[in-house]
Amino acid sequence: MRTILIVEDNPMNMELARDVLEANGYCVREAASAGEALQALQESLPDLILMDIQLPGLDGLELTRTLKQDADTKDIIVVAMTAHAMKGDRERILEAGCSGYIAKPIDTRALSREVARLLPAGKAAAHPGSL
Ligand code: MN
After folding, report:
1. Domain extent at residue 87
2. Pick from 92, 15, 107: nearest CA to 53
3. For 61-99, how does the pLDDT look when each residue is reduced to its tens digit (9 = 90+)?
4. pTM for this prediction
């Protein structure tokens, strides 16, 4: 089963993203900060990270840059989530190493579409009978 790590400090956004991704057949793990994300990555590597840009402390773009410099984590697909959909932000996000991004407030269809585009077969990869 494909695994997605959601890095998001807002509990409502976390719940929404989790519900959408689980409904699409992905296994979801959660981190509320960059520190929690790094800890989760020590345990196991997800197929994709859904990365909030606005995080307390180390922000999502800084964390993405850090991950892209590490041989162990550089190949993990990162999708940014940002409330700042201003001109220049797209370039900043892609330059940091993200493969895509979605705007906030989260549009559940846009989230499903973007994740499926970058990480196909969430449902197909699920094992019958697994949690
Ligand atoms: Mn945030």
Report:
1. 3-118
2. 92
3. 999 999 999 999 999 999 999 986 667 888 999 999 999
4. 0.90
